[in-house]
């Protein structure tokens, strides 16, 4: 790798005459032998970080950018062409390297090396904690200075497969309320990685143990103890986590859930990039967490020992959007997860209409657009996680509907609806009625018949519209 493409070599060249040190995660990950998709370096300098950052930028290849970060430390970021790497440059906090390292969160992040090269500088024993695979705080005050470090503690424990030592967990838990004052986008950046991890349930358990869930996702915590119908074996909270587990299982091995014929299509769907650094599979995990989020307030005693949650799909969609707005996610992710929540019950309602005709399939795909394939996977995961009374029979019945629908939804996702046989203005002229919502409804009826293979020409499409109008009039 040329020095232009190697950020460490670039920084060393640009700052050769300036006291500077490499710190934090880059050292930790290198010592652990962890690969990195992009090179991400943190450098502290004795002098002016702006001047140092601009020196690195000037030495970098065309397309290298530099800008100030909106943090309390006056840090600057240099980003390589195409985002291939990044370097954050900060001034020493406290005036000396030892003082700077003493202000960091965890000992494994408080290791430094001279930028020019040399032995690690490890005043807090981070090298030993790396060997013991342990996360230990440098000082409890670190969580006061930035409560986000509580989320980062859980995320690192999950990603590194490290244990959190007891005093550190206790100190973090005592300060968890401070997370309420952290910017939503910073909270989401950590939660996103926890939910997207190989074992998100362990990550959520870690967050729960640190007292963080009730602060950053209080709606999820509110699901505890909300009892369900006899067809469920867990309360709403437990069921939610089991749906998440089923989604993860489908991502890992789609063939086990949907069969070999559909497996590659599902794998490709869930691997598609969506928004906010998430794939469609990552977004589906968020929908699994939020799909029943409105059950506490819609819990209804129907009498005779029966329980219901009327309207929890619609109210849950609104709540999902509100939660993701609070976390400052993109509109695309909010709309996607809200749609998944809104439609997650729709497939289950079709079980009693087996076998499904093509018109019913079309109505489902139109109603769920643009998440038809995703929500079919969510509905399947939801059913697989529901193992109360009559579970096996119910699961088999659901699969009988879900698998053909999934095949249709995957085709719709890639190909979209068929080209219309007649335009709206043409149909209005043929029928002698004005353009408006009624023409839209008739075009929808024609599209449904076309999907079912019942009309294939423009003339047949007009005839179908006349039949609809005649049936309504008669």
In the predicted model, the low-confidence regions spanning at least 5 consecutive residues are none
Indicate the proportion of strand residues. 5-15%
Distance between the termini: 77 Å
Return the domain count.
4
Question: Helicity range of the residues?
Answer: 55-70%
- Gyration radius over CA: 28 Å
According to DSSP, the number of beta strands is 12
Could you explain the architecture of this structure?
It is a single chain. The mean pLDDT is 92. It is elongated, with a radius of gyration of 28 Å. A 6-stranded mixed β-sheet has the order 3-4-5-2-1-6. The protein has a two-stranded parallel sheet with strand order 7-8. The protein has 26 helices and 12 strands. The protein has 4 domains: 1-128, 2-Layer Sandwich (Beta Polymerase, domain 2); 133-216, Hydrophobic Seed Protein; 223-415; 424-473, no CATH class. The longest helix is centred in the last third of the chain and has 25 residues, at 391-415. The protein is an alpha+beta fold. InterPro entries: HD/PDEase_dom, HD_domain, HDIG_dom, NT_sf, PolA_pol_head_dom, PolyA_RNA-bd, tRNA_CCA-adding_enzyme.
